[in-house]
Amino acid sequence: MIIVLRPDATKKQIEHIVKKVKKLGLKPWVSKGKERSIIGVIGEEDVLSIQPLEVFPGVEKVMPVLSPYKLAALDFKKEGTQVKIGSGLEVGAEQIIVMAGPCSVEKEKLLIEIAKKVKSAGATVLRGGAFKPRTSPYNFQGLGEKGLKFLAQAKKETGLLIVTELMDTRDMASVEKYADIIQVGARNMQNFNLLKVVGRSRKPVLLKRGMASTIKELLMSAEYILSEGNFNLMLCERGIRTFEDYTRFTLDINAIAVVKSLSHLPIIVDPSHATGKWGLVSSASKAAVAAGCDGLLIEVHPNPEEALSDGAQSLLPENFADLMKDLRKVAQAVGRKI
Amino acid sequence: MIIVLRPDATKKQIEHIVKKVKKLGLKPWVSKGKERSIIGVIGEEDVLSIQPLEVFPGVEKVMPVLSPYKLAALDFKKEGTQVKIGSGLEVGAEQIIVMAGPCSVEKEKLLIEIAKKVKSAGATVLRGGAFKPRTSPYNFQGLGEKGLKFLAQAKKETGLLIVTELMDTRDMASVEKYADIIQVGARNMQNFNLLKVVGRSRKPVLLKRGMASTIKELLMSAEYILSEGNFNLMLCERGIRTFEDYTRFTLDINAIAVVKSLSHLPIIVDPSHATGKWGLVSSASKAAVAAGCDGLLIEVHPNPEEALSDGAQSLLPENFADLMKDLRKVAQAVGRKI
Amino acid sequence: MIIVLRPDATKKQIEHIVKKVKKLGLKPWVSKGKERSIIGVIGEEDVLSIQPLEVFPGVEKVMPVLSPYKLAALDFKKEGTQVKIGSGLEVGAEQIIVMAGPCSVEKEKLLIEIAKKVKSAGATVLRGGAFKPRTSPYNFQGLGEKGLKFLAQAKKETGLLIVTELMDTRDMASVEKYADIIQVGARNMQNFNLLKVVGRSRKPVLLKRGMASTIKELLMSAEYILSEGNFNLMLCERGIRTFEDYTRFTLDINAIAVVKSLSHLPIIVDPSHATGKWGLVSSASKAAVAAGCDGLLIEVHPNPEEALSDGAQSLLPENFADLMKDLRKVAQAVGRKI
Amino acid sequence: MIIVLRPDATKKQIEHIVKKVKKLGLKPWVSKGKERSIIGVIGEEDVLSIQPLEVFPGVEKVMPVLSPYKLAALDFKKEGTQVKIGSGLEVGAEQIIVMAGPCSVEKEKLLIEIAKKVKSAGATVLRGGAFKPRTSPYNFQGLGEKGLKFLAQAKKETGLLIVTELMDTRDMASVEKYADIIQVGARNMQNFNLLKVVGRSRKPVLLKRGMASTIKELLMSAEYILSEGNFNLMLCERGIRTFEDYTRFTLDINAIAVVKSLSHLPIIVDPSHATGKWGLVSSASKAAVAAGCDGLLIEVHPNPEEALSDGAQSLLPENFADLMKDLRKVAQAVGRKI
Fold first, then answer.
1. A2-63 adopts what CATH topology?
2. Which chain A residues touch D66 with a CB distance below 8 Å?
3. By CB atoms within 10 Å of each CB, which of A253, B260, C258, D233 scores lowest?
4. Is the ipTM of this complex over 0.95?
5. Do C252 and A258 touch (CB under 8 A)?
6. CA angle B295–B299–B301, rounded 5-degree value
7. How far is the CA of A305 from the CAs of A271, A308, B17, B48, in angstroms?
8. What is the domain partition of chain C in residue ranges?
9. pLDDT of residue A37
10. Greatest pairwise CA separation for chain A in angstroms
11. Which CATH class is domain C83-333?
């Protein structure tokens, strides 16, 4: 940690800071510049994170040197984490995992129909929301536990694994019972109690990036889950909020390589939410695979005109099948497979 | 609702849409332009909100005409809502309510000391977090129920009302017991289950704007609470996330007048989070009062060097007292009082 | 254009608007809804663009239906534009054009060395700035006309075409003389006089998206150039400014498919600026090709330690050569070639 | 400057960096931490700004300690700059200067009518654009030199000073001839050649913040003008681009106190562009005065229905007169006058 002093910092102020730093068990060194002096602090920077050094008299700003996340960092674990899901699949290995299905679970028969179609096109995980976060209280809020049971039935009939969202700590027991992967949605990326609850489980977790969260904050939220002991964790880039309003969100394609350079955790991409328009999903999916993602989460619905949520960004099963063919070629071009 | 058709939309596609709209009990009218035709839909637009008309063949885009929130709208209630807190105070009336105190509740004695000081400077509500949302799992997470009891003691000794944050649906009972105002934090503005829970209560609620939420989304979250029957609701602008990184957030001062033009709900401003630097709090507070806010939420700590959270943005009690004097003049200049 | 009226709009106010619209030679039709009435306007919406209908009494908001750009729109020209550069190349055809070279032109010998290396790796256009927009007045501002001459020499020795930036209307003559493609930089995307000047030329133009410009605004700036008669125009996505601060900018990968869906103009991607870190350029380049771009603009420098600008985002020639091999595979996977 | 090394940086790499730094005439010191070592550099950091130390092997990141602007900094000049305009006025002194008038100069008679009205309400400077930056090539582009002459006539008849925008280096002579304050618009904040041209003049300059520029970048652009010798400079906050789309821009009210804490330059606020809606201008203006601005730039038009640009954000003269009365009270409450 570097403490930059004000040009007019007094000797007494500097001594006060040095004393404080030493009291915390750290070693400070003062370095006097022409315009400004600085104090460097060697040691476990963490103990300083609760100490607001910015407010000490004479301090202009404080610049942390170390990253605030530890368990999520590549420094902690050099080789990429491979998260085992179900009995045979691994997220983070050579194969790119495709999770597909409707935005929300609506009817059992329809769900099973979709499940069969996405499976035959090559998906290995079925997505579908039983608990739905909706901006408006007047919109469809999901079927709840009934939806989870429909997912279980679809799994039984197709062998697909299930990824579904947990929105409330009170629903953990039922979601954990039915899901193979528990999704924490973008709006809950900083719902820290929810993070702790899924961290105490050993079920694989898919943590979506908040729409206004930096990559660093995503890794800090991952740290909540890891620090509770659950290393079966994958991250998900799903678009961030920017000034561009033609698309629903802006897919931060850079995030894939950045996460790979900072962390050992696998990274999934959700091109459906990141674009908000089905006509853009194909281009975004191919880009994500070329950029190095470990999986995709794609919305598919056979009748978007009747979908109870997110119809505008859902692919038809036939478009999804075409896309899978294209994705196989792109995956091969970058040394992966689908 | 206006449905803009593609230039190449066929007669059959148009008929398909018209049929669908009629089936929903609404009246469509088609208007043919030189470049493009459009379909207007008269009636309860709400029934269309679950219908993804964008995906119908021939449709280019859909533009809603009516606002998606109803109970939060000025159209619903022309005069400003005045929220009664405690036995005598009203938020949204002539008096601007000042809520002040530490970021987090730390020690009982310290809390009571702060409470006395902010009260003598003119605050009427004591703020203090017992449950703390922290970006890092390694930072102080709050005292929990013990913190609520300290707040109760401070209330007993000073007569100040209490505002404190609820983070988890499971903690509702205890927070409701101790708080006079239940705060829903920025990170939980779209934690819809939490919104429903506080909506079912009749305790006054302070709903903070999410750091990347539009004003419209804030009003939609308010709608969740109102639609459960709780009209004791006040909004809070606390800064939004932008590219500007010198300040912690960007105070959206426009939001005050915008909320007043769209809604009947009172609006509070939190200059401490919106700036992130105590040296900027005074300027932001005066601006908020001049712009027409109904209250302020300000962090005060007698020893920011030892604060367990947000020390950098906390005012010293003596600075807070000076600010209150300045604010009284500004309030008077705009026909209010503090 | 749709004019949404306030709930309390009077008959007289509506008549006033209708009269105004008719006076402009357009046909209005009024449609009365339960909550709100609206006025639709059929005809050349353009004449309304200078008329601030929002300020008419009784008006709540005005929603344009038609796009404000005409010549840049896909409606205007259905097949993609192919821009001829030099004697044989075409941007916007099957081949993806790679433009590579240093950020700024520094020394003649060095430039020619780089030119030879990028050519042998497969680039067909040499990039290099003679006039440099720099945030600080104390940084290297480019060699000016001398730099243009070095570029001409590099062209002579290698046969590579030249793309270089024009910053000031006063330098048009010399840039036009030496460049095969005139670049308008991100900071000048809304320097409308500069747009008019390059619009009056017939030299191919590379128009970079402003760092805070929407895709619609990019197309409006393109419209400035097209409306002056220069259709030899290609757009360039180079990253937008967002709250994410780990990368220099956020590559808006969605923009590629969006531009293709709205316009006939080719789109180039600049992965060097869009990431700001050489270690991320490879991932971003592959993503851009997979997403469907028509070209890439990549910074290459044999000795980034000595580069006078943007060293941190420049690839070494050997890394560039490796990347080109990878890109050929990705291009093939999406039916293109490099 | 602090150079943070990678955990795996070798001794040889460190020596290579140390050698480089010494060669530049600076003193490096190496400090070894448990997780990471760092190199501090004492001396004129400027010589390093052209040296991309990030690319040196073993380097993780480089953190500048000193601010990159010098002449604009409060460290350079402790007391606030007061810019003399005309014969008697000073911007940056006790009086808050109000500049008002139409967005664009349209007709001479109308301009003079507006000038008289804003003067009688208390404005001392007349604003009006002769050269207009417009997003669409099909919109009114301003009257050019003819508009400047109309401004001159309005000045003659009312005694108001003139502020008007310069868009192109080629127009400097005529704008300098007629203007008392030369405005550099938001879209040209990083048009560095334009900055140099106005920097070589001694006419007062009003530099508007770019819509996506940080405060630091605004100060860097100011540095361009100051470093050419023109200290008659005032800055202008006019709203930044964010995700919030209800208002045209987001007024960054924090910027006022931030500029005051970093620089000696006066700061003006433009509430018309920062809101984009006349109904929000009053609230924003009062906030700006309360926050400590040195002046306001407000659009006024007697017939917004007929304005050729920005009618929607223009106040009627009578509303402007009312606002001035309110502003006087707020100014007085914060120890200023209007």
1. Alpha-Beta Plaits (3.30.70)
2. 35-36
3. B260
4. no
5. no
6. 145
7. 20, 9, 10, 11
8. 2-63, 83-333
9. 82
10. 76
11. alpha beta
